[in-house]
């Protein structure tokens, strides 16, 4: 790694030393709107170069140019039509008037094809938030505001953690969706998915957001299975000066668990350009608040009939109480569970997110720029996965080095994570329960004996063997078994809690992950070299993962686990029929060292009947590589070993080669039990051994999807636009778990039938159970449609609405083999706003924005509740903000609310109910418009 750093540094130093020979001159001008008023913040760039500036408060600009002869200026402004202007060499003052944009569909996007194009002619569905939409979102953050884009599923686990998905199969840790910030994969490698925006952009530095829903692997690789989110930060050349934002709010109003709590979010950004050569920017933000409480104490014990479940059930297993999952069936009593601890007594709901980053930009020539960026983020979140986890003080460090030209880029970046004090909340409850149990003589027993000792005490008390404890009394028996129980809030409880969080691995609750990855990628647009005969784009990447958990999760005590993957793509586009028909074909090949190579094609056509009406159709493919945990987890939890599906992970263990399916072992056991008293043990084994079935579990492989999409984008009138689409996808190879039993003896005899010795191993306990990661053989399908309308009134009010319909077809698949769809059938968003309701001569203006979201009830299936469906009720959210801009002070005052009506809603089963957040913010920005 040091060698790589050195080579890149030397390459950049050599590149930076390249001379520039072009003669410098200055172009000045003023940009106005159609009414002749100056346009502050308009972008003025030289076409074919990287140089560009933004206009000042009077709409003026000054641009240094190192190019002889005439050139073309690309002039753009949010809400206005883009204009290209040819400038000669006579040094005249440039004056341009930009017409108001009739539709948001006229914006320029990059995400759909990895090159700039009009949104109207993008070959696939794409959504965009520009810098104005980011600034004026009614949500508490721009990231939360993404929920108002059509087709988006957002799951909120807490203040610092929200997960985005599109087109079904949502989860609280979404490894099927790619999230990029300035081209960097924003996932901690050990997670295998992005942790929302906890390690991402601050609102002050966010320039734009583009969302491409659906399979996008043909251009973006294996992680873009369900879609890709591209976030772009502000360029320090074009967005200079000091920006400061202070946001103060309150949440937990009317919360029965706690009183009202203060929420704060502060950010600062400073960017400075020195001429047209060098620029830098610095960002810092810190958000802190009291997280939402997970307090669903529903009894989810499936072995108890529904009418007997609840607080009085001796075998109660409450959803957000931990430790009560430990259960025994006691003779003469029935099923009994241990007394657990509520989540609010185990985790810390005081959360924060710290983000620090800086970037250096150097323009070597007008067409070549070098960039170095550094990001440091650290924070705390409560996350619902297979358990509830406290991502406590988790940090992510990123480095990026990039060389960017007008038609290419070469980039290298690294991600390094450190879990710090993170822990498993459920494990913490179970381990605390094992720290205080006393035997019948009053002596505290060791943790490995604690559970059985507790049940022995319970049984003795229930049987009447304990003086002063009444027999046949479940409540009295539990109270006796709980004698000495550590109580939340006491110093003894807090000491044990702290101690166990500090122990990483099965003996404690702490989580260790110091996993990292580095990534190199590049892209080249061959179109200019081909004289515009066709648009041709090529690119590729190489990535290495470096896993380290010190044996707590992976088999890596002896050193890091390393593995590599690479990919390459090509895209060809051609316009026909006098530019009315645009055809695009893309193809990408990816190879991970643990799996076979995969080719993912995409083909798309856009027919523009007129400049206002555009029809599109596409065929898309996607795939998802298994996460590091899917491949390399090797965790012995006693009765079972959890084993990742990479071939190297089980080398020499003889599991895939020599094991029985768990279901056939159950059939064998039942048959043996029925026969043993009749014919004796030996004959009972022989009678039933053929019920055993040798497992044929394949090693893990990537998931696959093939989909088709049709859509229409149109500007129906000068004030009304529409965007609609329909998609249909077929999925297979879903990653899942299956259980097998490996006996000491060979599973098959010389005759090819189940070996009696192996059958006897099962009865004698000479067997080890394994939970293997593998793929389902079944295929399923999903389809859906979205419709979006935008209407601008003559008075400047903007009314937007969108709706989504999703449907899942299990076909003939086994539901146990299929990832949960976890998506409501219907959802809708409506937004209404105006940025200049009133204004005065000084330019001060009052604006507002309101957003309403509604979605239908649906069943959520996740590993937190052992894949048992839990209902997520229908809910609606109302966000609103009113702002007052004072250009003379370069300040915006904003009063807003997320979930204005304070409806406490659950967005994933087992996650907390989220209520309202009310805030006041003040933003000072030297470039405020």
Automatic annotation (TrEMBL):
Cell location: Cell outer membrane
Keyword Disulfide bond in record: no
Record GO biological process: siderophore transmembrane transport
Predominant location: membrane
Start and end residues of each TonB-dependent receptor plug domain: 121-228
Keyword Chaperone: no
GO CC aspect terms: cell outer membrane
One Gene Ontology term of the molecular function aspect: siderophore uptake transmembrane transporter activity
Domain TonB-dependent receptor-like beta-barrel: 490-900
Matches recorded under SUPFAM superfamilies: Carboxypeptidase regulatory domain-like (SSF49464), Porins (SSF56935)
Protein keywords: Cell outer membrane, Membrane, Receptor, Signal, TonB box, Transmembrane, Transmembrane beta strand, Transport
UniProt topology in membrane: Multi-pass membrane protein
Highest rank taxon of the organism: Bacteria
Signal peptide: 1-22
Family, similarity comment: Belongs to the TonB-dependent receptor family.
Entry protein name: TonB-dependent receptor
